[in-house]
Amino acid sequence: MSDVLDVSRPTPHVARVWLNRPEVRNAFNDDVIAALTATFEALAQDQDLRVVVLGAHGKAFCAGADLNWMKAMAGYDWAQNRADAQKLADMLWTLDQCPVPVVGRIQGDCYAGGMGLAAVCDVLVAADHATFCLSEARLGLLPATISPYVARALGVQASRRYMVTAERFSAAQAHAMGMVHELATAETLDARVDDIVATLVNNGPAAVRACKALVRDVADQPITAELRSETARRIADVRASDEGREGLASFLNKRAPNWLP
Question: Are 187 and 145 contained in the same domain?
Fold first, then answer.
């Protein structure tokens, strides 16, 4: 694995993926984008996996684009810019489609493309001193590839403001707007992330995957007869599954389910 990432498996059910370029505030470049894409493609195939923690080493979570990478892009023609942007768009899609929950650990500044990484996380825990910024407009650019995920996580009205103003906003503001689920101090951040990871690992592994897919598939959809029928089919499938039967039996018999150690 490329040294731009620090990837570990503390248990068979948990993966930790850390951005590992603290000297440049974990800024993106081609290597980071390729490494994240390859890593999450591999993790998506792992049937033992139940949760991924996405974090970063150093003071910043991610400062956006690497300066040297931006200098190189300044000389690109339209076709080269298009191909380059597609790689970032595909990387974000790969992370977003990870079949297990991704818990984001935001320990510091989260700017520009870093906002896209934060927005694809299913659960986001941020240090209370962290700051956020959609800074692209300051450079005459726009947060195009990250926009579907940011608008979904931050909300349309907040995105309308912060994409056009490029203002910084605090972790507390991100929490109030619903993007950040929990705030923690620098000292308690890891413990809170670990608590959430433990909760996810203790749930039915197939059910957790199905719940993540369910939210993606029903969000913002009209409640039609077809959707009602589809949701009824899904719960019937789960109730009739081995895991569903085991979960109900363990509850009724007041014992631990067999997916726990």
Answer: yes
Model pLDDT for residues 62-78, shown as the tens digit of each residue: 999 888 887 777 788 88
Q: pLDDT tens for residues 182-217? A: 999 999 999 999 999 999 999 999 999 999 999 999
**pTM greater than the 0.70 cutoff:** yes
Query: Domain for residue 259, yes or no?
Result: no
Amino acid at 133: C
Long-range own/partner contacts, residues 1-4 (CB < 8 A, 24 or more apart): 1/35, 1/39, 2/31, 2/34, 2/35, 4/29, 4/31, 4/32, 4/35
Domain range for 210 is 204-252
**In terms of Cα–Cα distance, which of 100, 110, 88 is closest to 53?**
100
Q: Do 70 and 88 have their domain in common?
A: yes
Same domain, 24 and 69: yes
Contacts for 203 with CB less than 8 Å, ≥ 6 apart: none
Instruction: Please state the domain count of the chain.
Output: 2
- Coil, strand, or helix at residue 94? helix
Please indicate, yes or no, if residue 257 is contained in any of the structural domains: no
Q: What is the pLDDT of residue 70?
A: 79
CA–CA dist 213, 209 (Å, integer):
6
Residues 126 and 239 in one domain: no
Of 57, 129, 119, the closest CA to residue 91 belongs to 119
Summarize the confidence of residues 105-129 as an average pLDDT: 97
CATH assignment of the domain containing 26: 3.90.226.10
Locate tokens 């989260």: which residue? Answer: 110
